[in-house]
Amino acid sequence: MSRGLIAICLLAALELAREPDFREFRAVQESLAHLPPKLRGWWLHRHGYDDSYYTTYRRPETMGLRLVGKWGRGPSVEVTGRDSLVVLTLGSEVALINFADPDNPEVLTEIQLDYIPRQSLIKDSLLFTGGNGIQLWDITNPRQPVRRSVVPYGVSDFAIRDTFLFFIGNDSFQVFSFADPASPYRIGCYPDSGNVTSVTERTAVIMGTGDYIAFADISDPVHPHRVGYYGGWIISATARNTICCVTIGNPNQPSTLTFRILDISNPATPLPLSSIDSCGAYDIFLDDSLAFLSGYYCGGHEFRILSIRDSTHPRPLGICVTPDVGMGVWADSRRGFAFVADDFCGLGTIDIADPLTPALRHSSLKAGLSEDIDVQGNLVYVAQSSYGLKILDATVPSSPEELAGVDSTRDMVTLSAVARDSFAYMGWGQPPYLRSIDVTDPRSPRKAGSCAIFDTPRDMVLRDSFLYVAQAYRFQVVNVARPRQPVLVGSCNIQGYGSDVVLQDSLAYVSALYLTVVNVARPDNPRVVFNGLREVQGLDVVDTIAFLAFYGLKTASVSNPIAPYILDSVFVDDFTEDVVIVDTLAILGGRTVRLYNIADPRDIRLVGAWKPPGWCYRLVHVFPYIYAACWDAGICILETATVGIHQSGSGRSSGHLLRATPSVTTGKIRVMLPATAGALRLALYNVAGGELKEVILNGSRGTFSGELCAEIDLAGLPAGVYLVKTSAEGSSTTKVVKTVGR
User: Fold this and answer.
1) Contact 153, 174 (CB under 8 A)
2) 411-469: per-residue pLDDT in tens?
3) HSE toward the beta carbon, residue 472, CA cutoff 13 A
4) DSSP H or E stretch at residue 31
5) Does residue 401 have a pLDDT over 70?
6) Taking Cα atoms as reference points, which of 85, 183, 80 lies closest to residue 139?
7) What is the mean pLDDT of the chain?
8) Rounded to 5°, angle at Cα 381 from 378 and 383
9) How many Cβ atoms are within 10 Å of 191's Cβ, its own excluded?
10) Partner of 195 at 20 to 30 A CA spacing, among 83, 155, 450, 666?
11) Strand-strand pairing, 389-393 and 680-686
12) How many CB atoms lie within 10 A of CB 721?
């Protein structure tokens, strides 16, 4: 089924309900994924859903987790530029690209943001990025952007004229002056709703929250005011001088679009000048006498060039098919190029030297929705729905680097990936559904083999020579002893869509419509031994406790795996996707990442929270980091901010602040000192003073955030209190507590 048809079906279904149950929540997420971010708030409002996430500024506060680094690539949504500098807004980042040589574009830098930007604009040496606040960046040196300030309003779109910034926030039309980029300030406002999409010398165009666009008089920026409106199911609107070009849709026939030019010389009474049927786009860019249309999700609405030299008789010129859906467009007619933010296919460069025959030159910065991750050493394998497998090098966690990818087409869904040694395994959206990938050289992965299984894998666990796969209504076991020839060896039915798998001894725990426990003692004959505790999305299992995510967190005893029972539960008011256990913390993924103390599984206590840039779909803990797949916001690398109890030595201090995290553990701890400490002997003692383990803490152990760090594994030691000490010209001590497994 095409993406356009899926979206049409979802729109029809969603009109029937307003309280989001599990299936409706998924449908909403799918529909939003096919819309430009700047239209998502409008879509939610129009369908009666809460749109506050897109209209309210959220301060980037966190407690308990610290963001270490981020690979923010996701779907491309906006593009703008200045001369040979092109700016692509994608995922939770903005990429600055040098196009002086169009055949060899150079990525100068990628600005990582703590939100998904919905609009980006350039004014002279300033870059504006907007979404959760409007940030002003000095890009005088585009290789080293410097953030100058932030205007704290939630916005979906905004516009710039001279040194004035126009947007709607907190139900007010706002005009800010950024004559001093470090201190923008408001100079005018009036009550209004919607989003400012474009401005001229006299008029601002507002995408209303209903079926219309509105016009505000901004000839005096200190006293802006609404003066008129134009009805219609408006999808995009761009104004210049006395005309406004709009795309008008039909909610009952989504594939029906109309391009219309309005005369707004008197914005109180806008008048239609001309129309072209079966023509329109998510974004319109005007350059000289040409209008460039980005494209639309329904078939036939591709990148298009129109002549608007005579606004009463616009003429279609050329059309160019791009690999995916054109979300945003920008062009420089003088240089003969147009650029399309082409959803999953990145930045499309189009030769427009002849407007009658535009031609796609190439696409770059391709990325999709991050659904799943697996971490092997310094390599991070990312399953990207609609864009295959990505391989990242996280040797430097603060700046992960994309090495390569195994691409699929947009109709092939990749929801899960797992790797070990020189092979990775990924789901595939069409038969045979499972592919093995030779990653001996991670910069040049190659398809190696395949296996016909029931459906697209939604999660996979690799242990020994077997791959355990959760799918829609089926759990399957694949023998990968010969990775180039994987073989299906066992299968059993489950209820619902299997979304998470945890393997413990001879049992596989699967989250689906219910918590499902499968006996895999015989991989060729997996058997369901328990099916209950309704509604589970993500799960983790530690010893005899299962942790279940679905609109909150539940703990369940699985000491008898054929009869699990609930121990405690907490409810949250949004859908939660996954949970991972880090010592005595349960980290719960969703729109908010929450931290719970689960030292006592019968008494779950909230101890922290962090706002991810996008919806957190999957969490993986590989000491000492937590890796989060944040759907259209890429990958975030985090660490817990919990630190040990600091104690000074006996009378003399070296001045080195010793830290150990976590302070309560069942296994490994990470010990840190300032990098200036030099080489030190580090030792673990019991409370009786007996030395148990030692390690040399020096630069060769690796630094993090200006600190030296080393690992000590307490596994195998009895529960109790232990001391970690340094020795140099003095000593520093910190205390950790070793707990027994639950």
Assistant:
1) yes
2) 567 889 999 999 999 988 888 999 999 999 999 999 999 999 999 999 999 999 999 99
3) 7
4) helix 22-33
5) yes
6) 85
7) 87
8) 160
9) 11
10) 83
11) unpaired
12) 11
Please determine, for residue 730, whether its predicted confidence score (pLDDT) is greater than 90: no
pLDDT tens digits, 226-276: 999 999 999 999 999 999 999 999 888 878 999 999 999 999 999 999 999
CA 42 to CA 37: how far, in whole Å? Answer: 10
- What per-residue confidence (pLDDT) applies to 651? 28
Q: 226 vs 80, 197, 232, 267, 709, CA distance in Å?
A: 28, 15, 18, 9, 59
Tokens 């909610």 belong to which residue? 251
pLDDT confidence band for 642 (50 / 70 / 90):
low
Distance CA 629, CA 364 (A): 22
Give the integer Cα–Cα distance in Å for 23 and 279: 34
Structure tokens belonging to residue 120: 């980006």
Of 229, 164, 219, which is closest to residue 192 (Cα–Cα)? 229
Checking if the pLDDT of 17 tops 70, the result is: no
Contact assessment for residue 347 and residue 326, using Cβ atoms and an 8 Å cutoff: no
Which are the contacts of 465, defined by CB distance < 8 A and separation ≥ 6? 479, 480, 481
Q: How far is CA 372 from the centre of its chain?
A: 11
- Listed in sequence order, the residues at least 6 apart from 511 whose beta carbon sits closer than 8 Å to its beta carbon are 470, 498, 499, 500, 501, 536, 537, 538, 539, 548, 549
Bridge partners (DSSP) listed for residue 527: 519
By C-alpha distance, which of 719, 601, 604 is closest to 667? 719
d(CA 77, CA 118): 7
Confidence of residue 513 (pLDDT cuts 50, 70, 90): confident
What distances in angstroms separate CA 248 from CA 122, 253, 281, 312, 470, one per listed residue? 27, 11, 9, 17, 43
Q: What is the pLDDT of residues 334-378, one digit of tens each?
A: 999 999 999 888 999 999 999 999 999 999 999 989 999 999 999
Burial of 116 (0-12, 13-18, 19+ CB in 10 A): buried
Distance CA 17, CA 462 (A): 40
Three-state SS sequence of 150-175: EEEEECCCCEEECCEEEEEECCEEEE
Instruction: Pick 701 or 344 by higher pLDDT.
Output: 344
Long-range (24+ apart) CB contacts under 8 A made by 187-191 are: 187/221, 187/222, 188/220, 188/221, 188/222, 188/223, 188/224, 189/224, 190/216, 190/224, 190/225, 190/226
The Cα-based distances of 676 to 121, 655, 672 in angstroms read: 42, 10, 12
**Residues sharing a CB contact under 8 Å with residue 602, sequence separation 6 or more, in sequence order:** 555, 567, 568
Token pair for 442: 């991670």
Specify the pairing of strand 732-738 against strand 664-665.
parallel
Q: What are phi and psi of 443, to 5 degrees?
A: -85, -10
CA distances from 268 to 232, 237, 285 (A): 16, 17, 24
Judge contact between 631 and 614, C-beta under 8 A. Answer: yes
Residue at token pair 């989001």: 20
Condensed to tens digits (0 to 9), the pLDDT of residues 520-577 reads: 999 999 999 999 998 899 999 998 999 999 999 999 999 999 999 999 999 998 889 9
Instruction: Report residue 23 as tokens.
Output: 């299936």
Report the DSSP beta bridge partners of residue 97.
86, 107
Task: Take residue 414 and report the two structure tokens written for it.
Answer: 């990749």
DSSP letter for each residue of 468-487:
EEEEEEEEEEEE-SSTTS-E
Burial of 517: CB neighbours in 10 Å, binned 0-12, 13-18, 19+? buried
Q: How far apart are CA 499 and CA 633, in angstroms?
A: 20
